[in-house]
Design a protein that fits this description.
It is a single chain. The protein is of the alpha+beta class. It folds into 2 domains: 118 residues, Nucleotidyltransferase, domain 5, CATH 3.30.420.40; 63 residues, ATPase, nucleotide binding domain (Nucleotidyltransferase, domain 5, 2-Layer Sandwich). It contains 9 helices and 9 strands. Helix 2 runs antiparallel to helix 3 and helix 3 runs parallel beside helix 4. The protein is globular. It starts with a helix and ends with a helix.
């Protein structure tokens, strides 16, 4: 089938099988989820068919972290392909372990690896924009998997006038809205963010924003303070501490 017709066919279906590939700003690896999704909007239903995690190999992760700090054009260009190859490989490994055939999957959504995000307005001559950069070419993922792949979610949000982060707000709206109860959903990712959902919300009434550093700086602190550790498993180190009531109140 023509790829464009296939994409239209997928969009018109009531139920689709979709794989999602995600790496956060902690840059520790890729989460893979394969789901059956029925409907859309607040009526959406989903069923997780399987999931997996693939850690970045040490050389690739070192290159990513180096690029986050002081990467040049060569490293950025190379990582755009290498990360995509790893995403595709991680997806294939997970799919095979789960026993799901490639032809059963309608679509892959690939976020890529964020290496730079600047939500403030940039003004040059008469041009104004924010900017963000995620590496891991969707064209490479599509070529390596043979499955239609979509991505560049943050770029599209900025192009439409948003700040590019957080991008989880629509999912929170679709899955966690209540006719009678307002909710605030706090996510502690590499950078922490919150989605605020009023009772019986419309799509335009929800809002979300970053709330500060999350696991990216926690992981970095652990790697400096504790030899041989890259993160705080199950929050065991943090659980031995105590909150500062004055800072918490502030």
């Amino acid at each position: 089938m023509n790829p464009v017709k296939r994409l239209i066919d997928i969009a018109m279906r009531e139920t689709r099988i979709v794989a999602g590939l995600m790496s956060g700003t902690s840059a520790d690896g890729v989460d893979i989820a394969i789901m059956e999704i029925t409907g859309s909007g607040r009526g959406v239903k989903y069923r997780i068919l399987g999931k997996g995690v693939e850690k970045y190999p040490s050389g690739l992760r070192s290159m990513i972290l180096r690029t986050l700090d002081s990467g040049g054009l060569h490293d950025i260009c190379a990582l755009n392909f290498l990360i995509a190859r790893f995403f595709a490989k991680a997806f294939e490994n997970t799919r095979e372990v789960l026993g799901i055939k490639r032809g059963e999957i309608d679509l892959v959504g690939s976020h890529g690896q964020t290496v730079y995000h600047f939500p403030e307005l940039i003004r040059i001559d008469d041009l104004v924009s924010r900017c963000t950069l995620q590496l891991g070419s969707v064209q490479v993922v599509a070529e390596d998997t043979g499955i239609i792949t979509i991505g560049n979610f943050r770029i599209r949000d900025i192009a439409a006038g948003g700040m590019g982060a957080p991008i989880i707000a629509y999912v929170d709206y679709a899955l966690l809205s209540s006719p009678n109860t307002g909710r605030a959903i706090q996510n502690i990712g590499g950078i922490a963010n919150v989605t605020v959902i009023p009772p019986d919300p419309s799509i335009d009434s929800i809002y979300a924003f970053d709330t500060g550093p999350g696991n990216s700086l926690i992981d970095y602190a652990v790697s400096i303070l504790y030899d041989g550790m890259e993160y705080d498993p199950n929050g065991e180190i943090a659980s031995r501490g105590s909150p500062d009531p004055e800072m918490l109140e502030e």
